[in-house]
Amino acid sequence: MQLAANQLHTHLQRGLKSLYTLHGDEPLLQQEALDAIRAHARADGYTERTSHTVAGAHFDWSEVLAAGGSLSLFADKQIVEIRIPSGKPGKDGSVALQQLAQSAQGNDSTLTIVMLPRLDKMAKSAAWFAALESFGVTLQVEPVERSALPQWIAQRLGAQGQRVEAGEDGQRTLQFFADRVEGNLLAAHQEIQKLALLFPAEAQGGVLTLAQVESAVLNVARYDVFKLSEAVLAGQVVRVQRMLDGLQAEGEAEVLVHYTLAEDIRALKRVKDAMVQGRPLPMALRENRIWGTKERLFERVLPKLSESKLAELLQSAHVVDGIVKGLKQPDWPSTGWQALHRLSLQLCVLCGASPKSALASTHLRR
Question: Is 366 inside any structural domain?
Fold first, then answer.
């Protein structure tokens, strides 16, 4: 049984199941889901808890299997938690998880909770995960996307009796807050809690001004190259500049950033070439393995990009490849990060422009 994160509270109100699987790469939301399940379990008489972390290929699963069937003299109900940080239980673990899943049916004395990182398609189709999903409840913890972050912050503020000002001033406050904490949800949660201490809800009716948020919220944003790729394709110029500066400050490898941008350009060129040869866009995207968010972004930007512009972008990517490896190029910045700024802006502006203006646009130089 699959369950969305926002359905967990309602689900728990109807009663606990004996097996839960939490998977995803957002530690804060996974921990909050775990805490909610634990709280309901304690209220339901589960007074004992054991925890097992699967580490290495030679982990002894017999201890986990034994824990599910043994109660202490002091507890009638117990929680057994199994953490698999790698997301790969191995051959023995696969067998053990299937056995645990089957034995969870009708077991009112043991609550089993399995915690996993974000899983790929292969892991989700494995027999062990299918058993967990079939005999229990699986909950995928999705990260909060940048577009949804202001609303997420507003909801969290509301839960502690605070809110931003009405109208555009409040929206600017939320956008500023989101810029400061993007990619770091745990730190965002801590910054929200800090605001409750600094500006208690009883003061000013719980209304937070932009000046108060600016003075209190630290810049704890964390970026990754995959989100940078999405921002570039979405034409978000200001955000792209902020992300590149953040990646540089965090010590990200220039070659990795270049590879990500260049791979997007190559993929756009391949799909465009396929369309020129007569393939429908959906077919061209499938053939080039463009899925999910990238698929939607490609559908939006490809009509704006001519074959000649894509050829120019491909040449620019080739030039920047040499720069990040230490070569000098005439009429290009001398440092890798400056060259990456120029390449990303070149693509970003074309992706954000209207089809007509994109055809007429010239190169941006940093």
Answer: no
- C-alpha 233: how far from chain center: 17
- By residue range, what is the domain housing residue 320? 225-360
**In this predicted model, what pLDDT tens digit does every residue of 108-122 receive, in sequence order?**
889 999 999 999 889
Single-letter code of the amino acid located at 230: E
CB 85 within 8 A of CB 114: no
For 64-107, the pLDDT digits (tens) are 888 766 655 555 789 999 999 999 998 999 999 999 999 888 78
Handedness of CA 277, 279, 282, 286 (dihedral sign): negative
What's the CA gap between 275 and 287, in Å, rounded?
11
pLDDT on residue 360: 44
Mean pLDDT over 234-257 rounds to 93
Identify the CA nearest to 351 among candidates 305, 312, 319.
305
Single pTM value for the model: 0.76
d(CA 153, CA 179): 11
Q: Report the C-alpha gap between 310 and 288 in whole angstroms.
A: 16
CATH number of the domain at 158, please. Answer: 1.10.8.60
Domain-ending residue, one of 82, 113, 141: 141
Query: Is 7 in the same domain as 131?
Result: yes
Task: Judge if 192 and 264 occupy the same domain.
Answer: no
- What is d(CA 154, CA 241) in angstroms, rounded to the nearest whole number? 25
CB atoms within 10 A of CB 211: 9
Asked if residues 185 and 160 have their Cβ atoms less than 8 Å apart, the reply is: no
Taken as a whole, the chain contains a residue count of 366
What's the rounded Cα separation, in Å, for the pair 158 and 161? 5
Q: Are residues 8 and 114 in the same domain?
A: yes
Q: By the 8 A CB rule, do 52 and 81 touch?
A: yes
Please give the DSSP secondary-structure letter assigned to residue 58. Answer: T
- Would you call 212 helix, strand, or coil by DSSP? helix
169, 135 contact by CB (below 8 A): no
Assess whether pLDDT exceeds 50 at residue 161.
Answer: yes
Number of folded domains that form the chain: 3
Mean per-residue pLDDT over the chain, rounded = 89
